[in-house]
Amino acid sequence: MTQIKAQFITLEGTEGVGKTSNLEYIKSLLDSAGIDYIVTREPGGTPLSEALRDMLLGSQFKGMSDDTELLLMFAARAEHVAKVILPALQQGQWVLCDRFTDATYAYQGGGRQLDMQRIQILEQWVLGDLRPDLTLLLDAPVEIGRERAGKRSEPDRFEQERDAFFNRVRDCYLQRARNDSTRMKIIDASGDLASVQQQIKTVFKALLPS
Ligand code: TMP
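YS: structure for the whole thing
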């Protein structure tokens, strides 16, 4: 089997686009190809970052300022990168991460309308040269996602936002994907699971060793 550099793969999308089921599908593709990998998520992925996730998503600090939210996202990310992502990649393990910095651009930049340049500065500071090798953007109209997500449990602090917020998030994700189409692949997630998986399989075919 041809050996390729450990890949850093991230999965993005607005609420209810099917990240969880498609993550399972990606795991099955990596398993079939005999890839050594870890699965992690943001915000989260270490005990400290998971504690920050609870603060960010729970209702205890419902009224936190937008800047606090942005800085906590990057604090969680700094810990996650240092303790989990970089060590795994350095050991040759692939990393499959449920959300990463594109989510900060989309939610805090697009959704909350924070200055994108400030996010860029934090990205450079916290990540240095580290960027995902591949990002799958699961895209579907906000109404479809909301309908699917609505069938699940109690909404978290982000899920309580209005459609206008999520439309800004979606637009920002799409714009980023169009500006960086080599790294970021748009997957049309509005159809059934089989059609979404077919698109994911095509993307991975180009990446996985044969
Ligand atoms: P989820 O990963 O279970 O969908 O929940 C994470 C929530 O956190 C989701 O609503 C998106 C939000 N989020 C941000 O707002 N900014 C970020 O940088 C990240 C990683 C997530």
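YS: worth flagging: The domain at 8-205 is CATH 3.40.50.300 (Rossmann fold).
IM: good catch. Also The pocket of thymidine-5'-phosphate is lined by residues 41-43, 57, 73, 98-99, 103-104, 107-108, 158 (CB under 6 Å).
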